[in-house]
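Quick illustration, no need to memorize.
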Amino acid sequence: DEEDSDNDDDDDEDDDDDDDEEPSFRPGIVHRLDKGTTGILIVAKTTEALAALSASFAGRKVRKTYLAITVGNPGKRVVIDKPIGRHPVHRQKMRVVPDHHKSGSLQSRGRVPMSSRPLPPSQAGRRALSFVDMQAFDSKLALVQVRIETGRTHQIRVHLSDRRTPVYGDEVYGLPDWNKRLMKTHKIERPLLHAWRLEIDHPITGKSLSFQAPLPEDMRRISKAIWPDGESERDDIFAE
């Protein structure tokens, strides 16, 4: 899932450029998608557009909707409001930060439980808000629509994994046996997550814009198996 331009993680650094001319496309990437995630990516053509688009993402003025295939059913109209921070041991992973306000039995004996001790800033977590809505479920796999209000690193994958319904094919947060099945049956080696729709105001004119990226072939094929009547019931999802 998406990382906004205000994310705490290190961004890719631009190469040094000794040319006097101002590059017109170089600063264009406004946000990022996780490796293996398909779908919409916004690119700015000018520095003015880049600044305005970055401000829209930072100000949570962008409406971002994803489609995912999950192992298990995460539920209908589910709101997940759980902070996400870096994993204390596996530094390349993120996690839902535990609730440190929950006191343990040790507190009654005058000892401070581990869960109540302050975390370092990198692990403390930032608010992450996801709206999850299952579209179809075949008793094993689900096609899920997810709208995110924030753009934390790996947000959708971490939230769905925390709900015990991970993204199918996710090697970091998913289920190894299911991932092997995906590879063996469908020859797919990526998380089945797609940045489907993005709504944003034009950085110069202010006009409301809506972009939609069709489902990639691998997700379309599995989605149809999960939801045979999907094309007639939600043609916007299955539109090519």
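The chain has seven helices and nine strands.
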